[in-house]
Amino acid sequence: MAARFVQISAALMVMGLIIGPIAAVLWGAGSMPAPRDADWQALRFTIWQAFLSASVSVILAIPTARALARQNFFGRGVLITLLGAPFILPVIVAVLGLLAVFGNSGTVNTILGWAGLPQISVYGIQGVVLAHVFFNLPLATRLILQGWLSLPGERLRLAESLGLGPWQFMGVLEWPMLRQVLPGAFAAIFVICLSSFAVALTLGGGPRATTLELAIYQTLRMDFDLGRAGLLAGLQLVVALTAGLLALGVTRAPGFGVGLDRVIQRQDATKILVRLQDAVCLVCVTLFLMGPLSAVVLRGMGALHELGPSVWWAAGYSLSVALGSTALCIVWALALAHRGGEWLSLAGISLSPLVLGIGLFLLLRPFVHPGDLALLVTAVLNALMALPFAVRILRPEVEATRQDHARLSAALGLSSWLWLRWILLPRLKRPLGFAAGLTAALSIGDLGVIALFADPDRATLPLQIYRLMSSYRMEQAGAAALVLLMLSLGVFWLFDRGGRANVKA
Amino acid sequence: MKALAFAAGLFTASAALAELPVLTVYAPDYFTSEWGPGPTIEARFEEKCACDLQFKPGDLLPRLLLEGARTQADVVIGLNTDITKRARASGLFAPHGLALDGLTLPIDWTDDTFVPFNWSYVSFVYNSDALPEPPTSFETLIAAPDDLKIIVQDPRSSISGLALILWVKAVYGDRAGEIWEGLAPHILTVTKGWSEAYGLFTDGEAPMVLSFTTSPAYHIAAEGDLTKRAAIFDEGHYAFFELTAKLANTDQPELADAFMAFTLSEAFQSAIPETNWSFPAALDRSAWPQVFQDLPNPKTAIFLSEDQAAALRDEAIEEWRRALSK
What is the pTM of this model? Predict the structure, then answer.
């Protein structure tokens, strides 16, 4: 009874949080305008860049995942953890880091200049794709690595005893696995890239590179056209939901990210050429992902001592928002860890966060000053945004536990509380730690709705970085970005670590 | 006993605070931050108003339009001239009733609702190490080699970006589209707001960025850096004003009036240059900090009235978008 009640009320809450704000925006708008030339351009660009970003991420992830799957080396576990860092990185920090490496005065162009080679430009669709690959290659790698590790050892040994060459091996074993895993990975990244906002607007190079989310920001900021914002959000929702449902339909792989410490045993993996190939691949990917991170660290260290108390306070507020958001998200995710819940959680990420924010503003306005609730609203919205990831991580384990222990708990007549406390939670420790870490890190880096109506006394760290930048203090902004980086990696590490303690997997 | 006294002290202190009337002022985020003018201005106004001045940071016009007549705001500070038509049409604002003869602007100001409190010229700021010979007009910028890159802001999301396209439109009229096509190869990227663009510039991504003639003052005064300079264009520069206005249905009309008058006083105006890094709107040039007096001045101030700006805006944005989408 109690379990059912929690499940239903969580579903209703999430549904209300999605439908309520949208209804408020449409109600406030009155009518919806016809799409303009620029709106179609934004739709086309949004789909195109998401398609490219997802394709490149997935294609690069295949050799990376294969190398990680078949090679065992010192520091492999640390590398897998570190490779996950970009995904949880605050966008504002990542863009700074990417530019320090790939920008006009970045490392790559400096080296090209010494070698007398032509310079590369990061601005344009290539920059948008570069940044998205940077964020999502780790996710794609994790999803595909999971597939590789799910290949049964008996089959691997059978293939070896039959003396299959690398191509035959691929055709017989790897390709069928990839065919199952790749569409899901592609669709997940496609949906994430659809609502891209901050990346497109700095690296895009001009109005060509306007995504739907950026167009929504423009409409709200200057024209204040609620109808058009609703229209654009509707377009985005349709595209994202279609892709997301397709992804759920084709994905049979279990949740991502847990239990990656196994290495598949293969004879050919020890051949020198294979080892070399894998080493080159891993070194390149590591450089690509770690270069920008190191740049952020180097750039920020110089001014770290100049940071005033307000930045540390902001870090504290961001941390509390993240913790609140994580608690909420985990409760929702546990309650929604079933097929219907996963569909529902997907709607959260398909919706424009800006339109959600404005909608909540409209709903709250008659009762309170929305600025006073800015932190609370941010925490709730962040929980909603991270929900699809948390559900994806938890659902397979929750369902497996339910299947394995259903008869036992029925026989013992366990109450739902005891079941949760003694059966489910202990078994979920690892995925819970991972999901909580991910949620907290994603939440810490999010500027989100705060950009529209800030709390007068309590700024979050991303907002404080913008404030430093808009008062010319670029070096201190760089240092605050470093704090943000440490904070989001730190909470991720703590939660993930906490989940692994005393667990031998 | 001690605890009791402490509790009583707390109570009386908050009671005393509660008796003070509250003046709610909506302001842009940068204005209220600890590095902006907000804190100084709050302290100086509260010294004599016997009130509690509360800034509420956020986007101004979108929020006021959302809240309509039920807004809590008594005064709004930081609106900009290119969007006043929309603001005026909302009917939310009341005439200020102030004498404007103390204004020290490059143009005549007679608006009965919106009062400027600071101003600057929109201009390109360059790094003289990277660009020893800066362009002196839009045409010389177009004629420069393609590797002279500039970073600009999007007119659809940034008021300085909007000011730039109005500047081009005011100077070139029907040729504006052509000018944008000429500028397009020089534009490295378009950012959503000023901060991102200026951050890219100081990181050395491009030698020139769209900003204000007053931006170099920060680098000179705070960093002793003389290499950031404003490129002065022969055709003149678009003047950019930030404005204050009183809400029509404020529940603190006297305090709101007092604050409006305060914005033109020396106590307010003298805080502007070195917190807002722009020119004060009602302070004699001789009273400006020396760095501001020394800044190079454009020959002509270009300015579009709100009617002209509103009439040209959509067309100018579309010309800009089309030229840069090619």
Answer: 0.85
